[in-house]
Amino acid sequence: MKLNFSGKISKSSMILLIVAAVFAVASAFTPVWRIDLTAPQYPEGMVLYIGGTEGVSGGDEGNDLYKINELNHYVGMAQIHPGDFWEFTALPIILCVFGVLFAVAAVMKSKKLSIASLILFGIFGILGFVDFFHWTYVYGHNLSPDAPIKVPGMSYQPSIIGEKQLLSFDALSQPDLGGYLLVVSGLLLAFVVLKEVGVFARKK
After folding, report:
1. Alpha carbon 138 to chain centroid distance?
2. Three-state SS at 82
């Protein structure tokens, strides 16, 4: 199998890149991740949204963020304020830039630019997860020594993805709409690149 990394992409691939661009831009305006918290004393649950135009926000018209910050105070965790995170301010801009990059690659029918877009998007995804892990680690482990509630050896870092029990709370971390849009966008981009370089070509 001989791979070809130069030349123009097909019309079908151009359309898929445009769809990927639309999804990437759309993801900039909706949360990409969410953490759902449930406990016996909060049967209605609480939701922390991450990403979108607000950066960090809470469900129930923002009231959940207030409740979460109140609970954080009791166990010694720092307050969560959207303005404290430059990453969440930059995220919508970065996603829109990726959308423009995908669209330019489509309009130019550039195979090389499509490949470069996939590499950059992959790096962005890895760095995003590393930064998210670091953020949750800092908030879950750097506890105030003056906290009203102290549990020796206890930390409050939720999982990056999946469920984790934090005292009486069950924390479920998972993608939100923007996250799913990014996954589909990345898969479309990967499919275009693999198709155009000849990975799916039949052997003669």
Report:
1. 18
2. helix
Helices (H), the chain: 11-27, 63-75, 86-108, 111-141, 177-197
Residue 185 makes CB contacts below 8 A (sequence gap 6+) with 20, 21, 23, 24, 27, 98, 102, 121
pTM: 0.90
Our measurement of the distance from residue 159's CA atom to the centroid of its chain's CA atoms, rounded to an integer in Å, reads 14
Put the strands of the sheet holding 162-166 in their side by side order.
Answer: 56-58, 42-51, 31-39, 169-175, 162-166
Amino acid at 204: K
Q: What is the pLDDT of residues 120-146, one digit of tens each?
A: 999 999 999 999 999 899 989 999 888
| Structural domain boundaries in the chain | 11-197
Residues 6+ apart with CB under 8 A from 108: none
